[in-house]
Amino acid sequence: MASYNKVILMGNLTRDPQMKYLPSQTAVVEFGLACNRRYKTQSGEQKEEVTFVDCTAFGRTGEVINQYFTKGKPIFIEGRLKYDQWEDKQGGGKRHKLTVVIESFEFVGGRDGAGGGGGGGNFEGDAGGGGEYDQRPQRQAPRPAAARAPAPRQAPAPQQAEPPFSEDQQFKDDDIPF
What we know:
It is built from one helix and eight strands.
């Protein structure tokens, strides 16, 4: 039987990341994520629903999250669901927990918490431990705030859109690809 386990979430950290190390010296970072859903009821009333998700990142991915994220910061994550079960040592009952193991993430919200688009870096890794930074040339890890120089703001140049075809151009059924 085929299966697929992929989670894509965007939200804000509910607490500062907590970093620990496995005996193999692999970093493990845990944090909470709050994802909001806004919807309108049948009566037209606006409602908001919040889902809290526990997240775990390993290796370099976890170290970078620990370094650059704090409570309240937005993050976009991709990962997989992991279900853990154990015996409660005090009460003897069975316990369980569903977490998201982060395989990659992206910075969201601009630099230093400013609003606007995302970007800044795409970190991917082997979620089983030892995550690696995805070193594609079009994305780089953000520099510390002290090393950044503010970019001058310029208005974007207006673009003139050209029509895909002229009005006098005729098409035949064979020219249409579908």
